[in-house]
Design a protein that fits this description.
Largest sheet: 8 strands, antiparallel
Low-confidence stretches: none
Number of strands: 8
Shape: globular
Order of helices and strands: EEEEEEEE
Oligomer: single chain
Helix content: under 10%
């Protein structure tokens, strides 16, 4: 089988500080899926990276700033943006984001 399978017990939730934690899930060289947990008021600082990204809000409420524009997203909402776009988020209500990157983020391993 040429699949990356990650069981919940094997996916470690790592504290990144500032009320943010990250769990790397399945990945290949071409794609990666990551769970990011936020406490209310925590921030994903504005940044860029060479990976395309899609994000699904599993729970909570967030204000994303993407390319200088703010958008409020809640459970069930999804957003996507190309590589090298300045983006960040502020957590309004505690929640979890599911981030998908292409290609995978070697810096997360």
């Amino acid at each position: 089988m040429n699949a990356s399978v990650v069981r919940p017990a094997d996916a470690v939730l790592r504290d990144l500080g500032g009320g943010v934690s990250r769990r790397v899930l399945a990945h290949t060289d071409d794609i990666m899926i990551v769970e990011v947990h936020f406490e209310a008021g925590s921030v994903g600082a504005p940044h860029t990276h060479p990976h395309a990204q899609a994000t699904r809000v599993l729970s909570g409420e967030f204000v994303f700033t993407v390319d200088g524009k703010d958008v409020t997203v809640r459970e069930g909402d999804t957003l996507a943006f190309p590589s090298n776009i300045l983006h960040g988020t502020r957590c309004v209500k505690p929640g979890v984001l599911l981030d998908i990157f292409s290609p995978m983020r070697t810096d997360f391993l």
